[in-house]
């Protein structure tokens, strides 16, 4: 496939290569991590949001998650820190739109207090989410450039 | 973000290493959202950090370090309900095993809250703004609340100014007594990008309306028109605030709505009217057809789809005193009409303990009838229970909460249908 390049804003910068996991609909942070938050799963991170056909039951451990933005309860910040500590968190979080205050809170606290970083890029644009598909190769650069393909 | 000299000194360690780190988090967080400054907070904080679950161990450890360093909230603050209740709900061996294995850090978390400045457990509630709990700052007060439904109600109905803070940022702001000034705290951030015109032939189903709005506007601010007529005298009162609580919490659960305006009703809308609408705003019409369309998306997620319900969940967010009385009457009168003494399934009434005590003080006879009928008042968080391991295998729940529905396998029904199911034990075909 032809490579497509998108320039975003690094909220928490870093360099990474891997494969995309895509949620075309907004990602419900709390709704997606219920099994890790309340059901004792520390081995994997199966998405528990039955409203999300792209991700429901898919393992999000170590994923490069591509979505538009996050929705849902304010417990989501704690959920992100929790899955990070369990070792089943995301490797990178890529947003076509602006990062929200819930996700940003969890990711930034984890980064500053515990030195645990999930590379986070936002403002990649609608075209990014239209172009990227689950399984696509992704390359992330320090300056927020994301290459798909 | 431009910091004052004092703030720069804190960042440099003048108030200790913990405060310096908290300030750094505030600065990175504020810069992410283009905040130009930090503002001093007033009123009282509200925290959603409630479950002592292992996934929160990092958060609890950080706050424990702050409390050990002698740091404290700038004012006594309210906290979301605890995640379990072994007196009234999980009072059997199997559920207790799940509770004690699932929340091994509850003691540590409660102890952290006590040291940082939370009041006793009787006031634990997600509906911190009800009179009995008493955290309802004056309009215009800058605060940094967490809990999506409380943020949403506070911004919209009380007219306070807070962003949708995640767990952690709430207490970091409480300890620093400051928050980055951006988003829903600013006049510009409170402008509406959507006009929602409600044109239903009768009062809307408030939870369904909220779900539809959340899905449509996602994180934007809507101005909702056409519903003020359901609020007598265009005032939000103790007797009708639950309607906005139901609608708002659903917008925050199905979307990320932190603020909505209701034409002629909520403080910003009363002051500014349709001047709240941004240039180029979009319009969404919600009518009977839209309501039905939304309801049809509420799938039956019970493992045994045609099975009978085993429990009713009333009150997410937590019931107000009015709701406790309303549901008490609806259910006990429904039973009397059917010649029955007890509900077919247990009915869990989620509310702050101080609300339950007020119900007993106000109307002991009704409280007694409710107890005898099988209605169990509990201060826990119902939606958290619904998220515990194997819940849907143990419980086939029904609810009046669109928020609970959004996060669980519990099925949503309108009030009267819910009463009929509670009395008969059967879901109508």
UniProtKB/TrEMBL annotation, chain A:
- Which top-rank group of organisms is this from? Bacteria
Keywords (A to Z) from UniProt? Lyase
Molecular function GO labels? lyase activity
A Pfam family (short name) is AcnX_swivel_put
Claim: Cell membrane is one of the keywords in the record: no
Q: Which Gene3D superfamilies match?
A: Phosphohistidine domain
* Span of domain Phosphomevalonate dehydratase small subunit-like: 40-111
According to UniProt, the name of this protein is Phosphomevalonate dehydratase small subunit-like domain-containing protein
UniProtKB/TrEMBL annotation, chain B:
Which domain of life does this protein belong to? Bacteria
Q: Listed GO molecular functions?
A: lyase activity
Pfam families xref list: AcnX
According to the record, the signal peptide region is none
Q: Which InterPro entries match?
A: PMDh-L-like_dom
Q: Does the keyword Metal-binding apply?
A: no
Q: In what residue span(s) does the Phosphomevalonate dehydratase large subunit-like domain sit?
A: 1-408
What's in the keyword line of the UniProt record? Iron, Lyase
According to UniProt, the name of this protein is Phosphomevalonate dehydratase large subunit-like domain-containing protein
């Amino acid at each position: 496939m032809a490579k497509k390049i998108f320039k975003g804003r690094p909220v928490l910068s870093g360099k990474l290569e891997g494969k995309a996991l895509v949620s075309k609909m907004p990602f419900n942070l709390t709704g997606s991590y219920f099994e890790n938050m309340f059901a004792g799963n520390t081995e994997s991170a199966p998405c528990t949001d039955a409203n999300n056909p792209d991700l429901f039951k898919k393992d999000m451990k170590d994923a490069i998650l591509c979505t538009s933005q996050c929705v849902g309860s304010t417990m989501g910040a704690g959920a992100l820190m929790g899955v990070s500590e369990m070792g089943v968190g995301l490797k990178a979080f890529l947003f076509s739109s602006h990062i929200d205050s819930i996700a940003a809170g969890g990711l930034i606290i984890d980064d500053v207090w515990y030195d645990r970083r999930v590379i986070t890029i936002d403002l990649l644009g609608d075209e990014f989410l239209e172009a990227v598909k689950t399984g696509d190769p992704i390359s992330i650069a320090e300056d927020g450039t994301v290459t798909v393909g | 973000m431009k910091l004052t000299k004092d703030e720069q000194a804190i960042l440099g360690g003048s108030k200790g290493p913990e405060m310096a780190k908290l300030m750094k988090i505030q600065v990175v967080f504020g810069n992410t959202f283009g905040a130009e400054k930090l503002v001093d907070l007033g009123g009282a904080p509200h925290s959603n950090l409630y479950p002592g679950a292992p996934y929160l161990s990092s958060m609890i450890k950080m706050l424990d370090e702050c409390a050990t360093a002698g740091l404290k909230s700038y004012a006594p603050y309210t906290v979301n309900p605890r995640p379990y209740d072994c007196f009234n709900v999980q009072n059997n061996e199997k559920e207790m095993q799940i509770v004690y294995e699932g929340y091994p850090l509850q003691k540590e978390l409660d102890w952290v809250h006590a040291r940082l400045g939370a009041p006793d457990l009787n006031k634990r509630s997600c509906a911190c703004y009800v009179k009995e709990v008493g955290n309802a700052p004056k309009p215009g007060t800058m605060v940094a609340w967490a809990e999506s439904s409380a943020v949403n109600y506070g911004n919209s109905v009380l007219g306070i100014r807070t962003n949708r803070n995640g767990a952690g940022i709430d207490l970091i702001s409480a300890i620093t007594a400051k928050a980055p000034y951006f988003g829903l705290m600013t006049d510009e951030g409170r402008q509406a990008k959507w006009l929602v015109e409600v044109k239903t032939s009768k009062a809307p189903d408030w939870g369904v309306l909220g779900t539809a709005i959340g899905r449509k506007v996602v994180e934007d601010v809507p101005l909702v028109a056409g519903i003020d007529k359901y609020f007598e005298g265009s005032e939000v009162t103790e007797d009708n605030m639950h309607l906005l609580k139901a609608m708002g919490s659903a917008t925050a659960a199905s979307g990320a709505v932190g603020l909505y305006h209701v034409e002629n009703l909520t403080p910003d809308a009363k002051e500014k009217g349709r001047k709240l609408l941004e240039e180029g705003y979009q319009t969404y019409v919600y009518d009977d057809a839209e309501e039905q369309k939304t309801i049809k998306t509420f799938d039956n997620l019970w493992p045994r789809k045609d099975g009978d319900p085993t429990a009713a969940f009333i009150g997410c967010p937590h019931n107000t005193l009015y709701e406790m009385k309303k549901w008490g009457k609806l259910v006990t009168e429904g039973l009397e009409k059917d010649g029955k003494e007890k509900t077919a399934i247990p009915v869990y009434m989620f509310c702050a303990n101080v609300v339950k005590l007020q119900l007993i003080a106000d109307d002991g006879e009704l409280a007694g009838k409710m107890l005898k009928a099988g209605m169990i008042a509990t201060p826990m968080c119902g939606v958290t229970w619904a998220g515990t391991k194997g819940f849907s295998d143990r419980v086939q729940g029904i609810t009046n909460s669109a928020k609970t529905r959004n996060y669980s396998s519990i099925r949503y029904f309108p009030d009267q249908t819910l009463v009929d199911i509670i009395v008969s034990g059967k879901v109508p075909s």
